[in-house]
Each structure stands twice: as structure tokens, then as C-alpha cells.
């Protein structure tokens, strides 16, 4: 569904994303969940920004469902079925929770009118557990609720590929568990997910495939446990302590078979 070919984004003399290629959501694999991991400053958010038209690519190509979207603007990407959340949540603070989600349904989600958009919005608020907050101003929500609102807004845009940028950051263990349930439900509905994530617990329990960025370059790609054993990934991101712990876990699992 989404294919990135030799994508590069330069800021001055710095290559924030450097010759990155990958694909997600292959035919027959809709609803795939792909993790995007790497150290701070690796280029993860920049990559999403380039894919969704926030920043123009310096070189390379982006294809969505076979169409070249390399030069599309953010609103065009949104209307084509490619949605995203933001690492720093960005609600419309002076609007209600319902109005925030209604905007997504009305302008990018294919709603025929405002009444239809509100109906769609209420459904997504119910799904994320925010229906009871529908008439509150978005600016008054707690961080976990703002994260839910960000997710409901993106779902109201009727995406086929959804990019989640650190959607679990700042949440406690119980809130993360609930978020994982939501993401699994979203994927089960056929929406392909690309999630930027630092918590390896989330990556291991949620993702079928992982992409690893370091200094803007894709240094590894594959199943989570295999990527976690890659020497380049251990050195650049996970550390030898985590690799040793994983090795012991795998050894224990093998001995119990």
C-alpha cells in the first residue's frame, strides 16, 4: 500500500533522512502493523513528515496504492487515505472534542455534510473511549485523553494507512495496555499501521515487522526478534544489556519446548 524508494530529506548540509527504501501493507497483508524505531534524532518523525507532505522530499519517490504522491500536500495525502498523528498532540484547543473529530470527518473523511460528520465523529469517540467528553473543550483534556482525541481525529479521516508518532509516550502501563487493544482493533479492521515507538514491549507485542533508523539511514528491517539481534541495531539503539536479556528469554523459551 505504501512504498518509499530512495527517499532523502536534507536540511542544509544535514541528511535527516538518507536514501531510505521500504514498503508496507503488501497485497493480502492489509492491517499489518509495522514499527519504526531508532535513537532520538534518527529521523523517524522527519520520515513521516516527508511521506505525508509536511516537508518536501529532497530526492526519492513515495507511492501510495500505486500512485506517486511524492509532491502531494498534507491535505491531499489525508484525503487520499494516508493519515497520521503527531508526536506533540495538536488538537484545535478552542473547539470541543466533538468538533475536533468532526473536522477530520468533514474535510478528509468523506462525510457528506456536518450532521453526517458528527455522526461519524461520535462513533470514533465511542471507539477510543472519549464519547463522554464530547462537549468538553479540547484544551481541558488530560494528556491521555488528548492522545485518544488525536487517534479519533485521524480515524475520522477514513485512512487506509495510519501513521502513529509516539502515541504511547507519556502514558502509564494501564493506559498503554488499553492503547494496544485499540491499535490491534484498528489493524483488525484492515487499516495498515506504521507506529513510531520507543517501548520495546509495545514493539514486540504489536508489530509484525520493524524498521530501524539511525542517522537517517535504514539499518535493519524484519521481524522484531530478528531485528533485535542485529549487531548494528544493538550497537546503535538497543544496547548489549537488552540483547543479553533477550537472548536469555529466548534460551528459556527453547528449553521449555
CATH fold type of the largest domain: Rossmann fold
Looking at the overall shape, the CATH architecture of the largest domain is 3-Layer(aba) Sandwich
Q: What's the overall average pLDDT, rounded?
A: 91
- Helix and strand succession? EEEHEEHEHHHEHEHEEHHH
- Structural shape: globular
Total number of strands: 10
Strand fraction: 15-25%
Number of helices: 10
Query: What is the CA-based Rg, rounded?
Result: 19 Å
Low-confidence stretches: none
What is the CATH H-level superfamily of the largest domain? P-loop containing nucleotide triphosphate hydrolases
Which descriptors would you attach to this protein?
257 residues; 10 helices; four-stranded antiparallel β-sheet; alpha/beta; 2 domains; Rossmann fold
Structure description:
It is a single chain. The chain is built from 10 helices and 10 strands. With 257 residues, it is of the alpha/beta class. The relative contact order is 0.16. Helix content is 42%, strand content 23%. Helix 3 runs parallel beside helix 5. The strands form 2 sheets. The chain has a 6-stranded mixed beta sheet, with helices on both faces. A 4-stranded antiparallel beta sheet has the order 2-1-4-5, covered by helices on one side.
Concise description?
By secondary structure, this protein is of the alpha/beta class.
Please outline the helices and strands.
Elements: E1 2-11, E2 14-24, E3 33-37, H1 44-51, E4 59-64, E5 67-68, H2 74-80, E6 82-84, H3 97-107, H4 114-128, H5 143-156, E7 161-165, H6 173-188, E8 192-196, H7 200-206, E9 209-214, E10 217-222, H8 224-228, H9 231-238, H10 240-255
Parallel strand pairs: 3-8, 3-9, 6-7, 7-8
Antiparallel strand pairs: 1-2, 1-4, 4-5, 9-10
Helix pairs in contact: 3-4, 3-5, 4-5
